[in-house]
Amino acid sequence: SLTEEQKQIIKSTAPVLKENGKEITSIFYKQLFKAHPELLNMFNQTNQKIGTQPLALANTVYFAAENIDNLGVLMPQIQHIAHKHRALMVQPEHYPIVGKYLLHAIKEFLAEKATSEILDAWSDTYNIIASIFIDIEKNLYDKFNQDPRDKGFNSFTIVKKEKIANGPIISFKLERTNGGKMYNYHPGQYLTLHVKKGNYYHNRHYSLTQPFDGRSYCIAIKQENDRQPKGIISNEIINNYRIGDKISASFPAGTFSLIKDAKHHLFIASGVGITAFSSLIQTLYKKGKSNIVTLIHCVPSQGHAAFASQMRSILNSNQYHLLLQGRYLLQNLINDIIKQDTHVYICGSTSFMNKVQDYLIECNHPMSHIHTEAFRPSLSLIKN
Ligand code: HEM
User: Fold this and answer.
1) What's the CA gap between 97 and 81, in Å, rounded?
2) For residue 379, which atom of ligand 1 is closest to its CA?
3) Which atom from ligand 1 is nearest to the alpha carbon of 88?
4) Is the C or the N end of the chain the one with fewer CB within 10 Å?
5) pTM, whole model, 2 decimals?
C-alpha cells in the first residue's frame, strides 16, 4: 500500500496530470504502439483518433489515485472496465507494459519536475490499481477457460441477417461455428466482435438484443456515414459479411443490467440506442412485469424505430412512446411519466444522454435512479 507521504504526492500532482491528461496520454500511446505494435490489434483506433480512449485510461488512474483510501466507491466503474478488458482479451502480462509507458509519459511530461519520489508514488499507485484489475479479470476469465477450446476469440457463423429499420439498422444472428458451448448472458450485456480490416484487427461492442435462447447471439448494427471514422467497422460488417460467413467474437460481457425490484422502469432511447434495451424489456415481459415498463424511443421517423412490432406486442400505447421530434415534447413526456421511485435508463448519442440526464437532474430525480449505457468509453468525458 501507499505511505502517507506518497498519498500526499499523489494528491498534489494529480491535478497537474489531470489537467494535461490528453497530452500525457498521447505521448503514452505513441510510445506504447511504437514498442508494441501488436497492441494496435486491441485498441480502437477510432477512439484513439477522436481522443476518447486516451482520456478514459488517464481519468481512471487519476480517479483511483484521488480515492486511493476508499477504492470501493469506484467498484462499479472498475467492474465495467474489467468486463470490457475481458471482452478484449487483455491479459495480466499487458499491465506492466502499459504501466511502463504510462510512467515514461508522466516522466517526459513533468521533465525536470519529475523527482524519483513522484515517479515512485505514481508507479506504486498504478501497480495497486493494476493488481485489482488483474484479480477481477481472472475471475471473469475463469468462467470461460474451463474448456481450452473456449479460450480467446471464438468463431461464430452468421445464420440470419436482415434489415430491421431504416438507418439502416441490420440485425445479425450468430451461432457457434463448430458446436461447442454457448455461454449464457444477462440482458444488458454486449458481444464484442473481432474483425480484420486493413493490417489490424478491430474490436467493437454491440448490445445483445434478445434474451438468451440457448443457441444464438443476436445483435443489431447501424450503418454509419462512410465519411465518419466511427462507422468504419460497423459498415465493414454490414457490407461484407453475409449469411453463412464466419465472424470472430468473445463471449458476452458487460455490467449494464436491470435494477432488481424496481417499482417502475423508464427506458429512454434515441435511434439505435434501443438495442441496449430490447432484451431488458423482453425479459421483464417474460417475468410478467411488463406492466411496470415505460419506453420512450426518439427517432427521425416511424420507419427508424427498430423492434417496434415486438415492443407493441409487449407494451400498450400509454407505455410505448415513439417521439419523432422535439426536446420540449420529450421533457413534458418525462415529466408526466416519472415518479420519485422510477429507475430511468438512457441510451443514445452523447449529446442526447447528457441532455436527458441534465433534465432529470433539473427535476431533482435522484442520481441513484439514473442509469446510462454509452456506446463510447465511459469516463472519457469529465463533467464538472
Ligand atoms: C478500455 C482503464 C489497463 C486495454 C479502458 C477504459 C478504461 C480503461 C477506463 C474504457 C472503458 C470503457 O470503454 O468504458 C484502464 C486502466 C488500466 C488499464 C486504469 C490500468 C490500471 C489496460 C491494459 C490493456 C488495456 C493493460 C492492454 C494492453 C484496453 C483496451 C480498451 C480499454 C483495448 C478499449 C479501448 C477501445 O477500444 O476504445 N481501459 N485500462 N487496458 N483498455 Fe484499459
Assistant:
1) 18
2) 9
3) 33
4) C
5) 0.94
